[in-house]
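User: quick one, fold this
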Amino acid sequence: MRTERFRFSGGVKLTSAVVSGVLVFVVVDMWSVGVVQGLVASAVAVAMVASVLLCMPWRLVVDAQEIRVVHPIGQTKILRSEIVEIRAIGREDIMGSLRVFGSGGYFGWYGIFESFKIGRYRMYSGDRESLYLVRTEQRSYVISSRNGLEI
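Assistant:
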């Protein structure tokens, strides 16, 4: 069994810091407008940040039986027996993808995406480098792994 932490690129760190700073600024500004507005802005900001932090991928666990993406609130398991294809892909394969639900750079790329090349897929990546397409009969996944994925 092999475990690796998702690494986050400098761009992800910068984007996350800027977005977080803007959120803090908006919340502080809304408190200066009024208590109700400040409470609403605070609640929205806390809910947004909490949902992002609870869903972001932390670790990738690869063993003979499964590939597992560990999140703070659960795990995504891909059984090896259900995998029909694993192959390395490049950033060009996901360029132009539409985010259906998830994060497009705020603490990584994860969630449900759709593209013309791949179709609908679930992505778990911190840096959009070393990407692998993993297909099962039911779903497609794009996962970043420094150490590679193999069937």
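User: anything notable?
Assistant: The mean pLDDT is 89.
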